[in-house]
Amino acid sequence: MISSYIDTLLIGGPKPFRADGTQSAMAREAVSAPVMLRRHGFDGDQVADPSVHGGADKAVHLYPTEHYPCWTAKLDGHRLLQAAGAFGENISASGFTESRVKIGDRFHIGAALVEVAQGRQPCWKIDHHFGLHGLSREIIRTGRCGLYFRVIEEGFVAPGDTMQQAEAAPHDWTIARTFKLLVAGGHRAAGAADELRQLAKLETLAEVWRKRAAALAGER
Q: Could you tell me if residue 181 is inside a domain?
């Protein structure tokens, strides 16, 4: 069972991101006081494009602190990696690596109860945020994607709060395995269709990823 604590809690809203008027909420800021976590995220936290970000299945974004040294070495000590929040996460914490956490695992964080819904699929905004072409592709290749929680029970959450696993999912669909199959090209492997059909029926998997699994299975 995973037991950890919140190293950093970050909240933010849309800010100017590109000269064409595009906005992003990726540049979140650390807070020091408790924040109410509701079904669609933390009070005061917003997304710039709700058509692809936010919603119940993406209420909270966590990125594992374990990945920061790897990226720091890979990206020559990029300035964004000097503090938590480089990947737009709400929570920076250790112990939640993709090979360890499963879809449907539940955790008490502060006074809230959350459930793992999916991994985080990177887009072009990561590249632009870092000023590095190909970073999103490297995240996909390495599987260092982070994860999203849905909120089962609302409650106040604060920096330093314990993150204690409340329930382990009764299967072996880790974030890493799921991400590889749906995002990193694993669906092209022989025998993948059966696994895709399994994922399409996994009720705790985010709806958009269940639909993706079903669509990929139908393409074969």
A: no
CATH number reported for the structural domain that contains residue 155 in this entry: 2.40.33.20
For 28-55, how does the pLDDT look when each residue is reduced to its tens digit (9 = 90+)? 999 999 999 999 999 999 886 676 677 8
Distances (CA, A) of 112 to 33, 109, 153: 15, 5, 5
Question: Is residue 211 situated within a structural domain?
Answer: no
Residue 87 maps to a domain: yes
Q: What is the pTM of this model?
A: 0.94
Residues 6+ apart with CB under 8 A from 131: none
Question: Could you tell me the two tokens for 154?
Answer: 């609302």
Provide the domain count of the chain.
1
Which stretches of the chain are DSSP H helices?
67-74, 124-130, 135-142, 175-182, 192-200, 207-219
* Domain that includes residue 46, residue range: 3-169
Q: How far apart are the C-alpha atoms of 17 and 219, rounded to whole Å?
A: 36
